[in-house]
Amino acid sequence: MSESSTPIESAEDEHRRVAGISAPDLLSEARRLDAADPLAHHLDAFADAPGVAAYLDGNSLGRPLRDLPEKVGTFIREDWGTRLIRSWDEQWMALPMQLGDRIAEVALGAAAGQTVVADSTSVLLYKLMRAAVAARPGRDEIVIEAGNFPTDRFIAAGVAKETGATLRWVEPDEVAGVTASDVAAVVSERTALVVLSHVDYRSGALADMPAITSVVHDAGALMLWDLCHSVGVVPMQLDEWGVDLAVGCTYKYLNGGPGSPAFAYLRAEHHGAVTQPIHGWWSASDIFAMGPEYAPVGGIRQLLSGTPPVMSMLAMQGMLDLIADAGMPAVRAKSISLTDFAVRAYDELLAPLGVRLLTTRDAAHRGGHITIGHDSFQQVTQRLWAEGIIPDFRFPDGIRLGLSPLSTSHEETLRGVLAVRDALTA
Ligand SMILES: *Cc1c(COP(=O)(O)O)cnc(C)c1O
After folding, report:
1. C-alpha 392 – ligand 1 centre gap (Å)
2. Does domain 3-66+327-425 have CATH number 3.50.50.60?
3. What percent of the chain has pLDDT over 70?
4. Does any ligand 1 atom lie closer than 6 A to the CB of residue 250?
5. Residue 194 to residue 214: CA distance in whole angstroms
6. Per-residue pLDDT reduced to its tens digit, 89-146
7. Is the distance from the beta carbon of residue 312 to the nearest atom of ligand 1 less than 6 Å?
8. Is 68 helix (H, G, I), strand (E, B) or coil?
9. Which CATH class for the 69-322 domain?
10. Is the pLDDT of residue 317 over 80?
11. Segments making up each domain of the chain, as ranges
């Protein structure tokens, strides 16, 4: 976001206001960090949001890129409006796989041919959980974390019911998140599948993906990682770390827009052996054979079911290009700088007011957001939204500060923390 896009007050007024409420050191530190930020030029790639002084919810819904209206216009006029149905053959049929390969290359540390874009995260979780349980006959437990995102738990419970499996819960420390020893304590020769989030949607805790995956493999089970809160903000190496299956959102740090389809990763060695349960024509060996019986295709296309939402696959492409340009290591470095700075601002401005820090202070063990807690945060969040300061509220008393590295500055982060402080002291 450019400076000029926050017209709530002029930069000078704002400086006076910020300085006037006794955070001049933090403000100059924020400006120093922004001036030294090698990715700062990307801030201008995002569309202006009039009236928004701090957008701290990029971990729930990423911002649109500035050039998106033009791209959507071209798509409608040319690809759809002029090429019409010919575009299916010319480009759209291959898009779920091509875009999957692009996500894999830019953000997953995975070779081509193992990732597709389709459905929603929830639907892909269902397909992959069913496929994984079926691939481990004789094993009847699914391990999942008690604090995992609701859809992950609900779908695991449904799959357990359908397959006669039992859910086994991991209950880790809420701030530190799930560890390899937590997982080692619950897996056994009965475990078919372990489902965990790479970054916890509440605390922001970052799980040790290689260590946990290896514990799960030692027990003979399959590992499914939910990457919704880590893809595009935390680097990973799915191939090298032996991950079997993964799913993730594209509307969070990949800025695909509301309802943009999710992606699924299935390790190449499982292709053919692992089959998903929704046998739509897009997963058939010959899509246009229109034959009497279903025969699944061998490769990653097997995870598709029906016609992909092509228009909803447009917005994420620009963001993937930006992330590729920056490189995931630089994105992670900026993310750590932003969350470190947010913790520092919390210490100075919010801790004295009784606000709790619900995220680890150890940057190596957290993702791209931090969560703070206070009894009044439900009302505080309503007030902040009305003022154009947009964090997100998580029941019962948490505010998440989601700091999407390419679209968020340190000064914007400080504006958010100061606004929380102001709301608490008003
Ligand atoms: C955001 C999120 C989802 C969302 O699933 P949808 O099917 O896209 O609604 C699922 N799991 C986790 C961990 C998430 O953070």
Report:
1. 15
2. no
3. 95
4. no
5. 11
6. 999 999 999 999 999 999 999 999 999 999 999 999 999 999 999 999 999 999 999 9
7. no
8. helix
9. alpha beta
10. yes
11. 3-66+327-425, 69-322
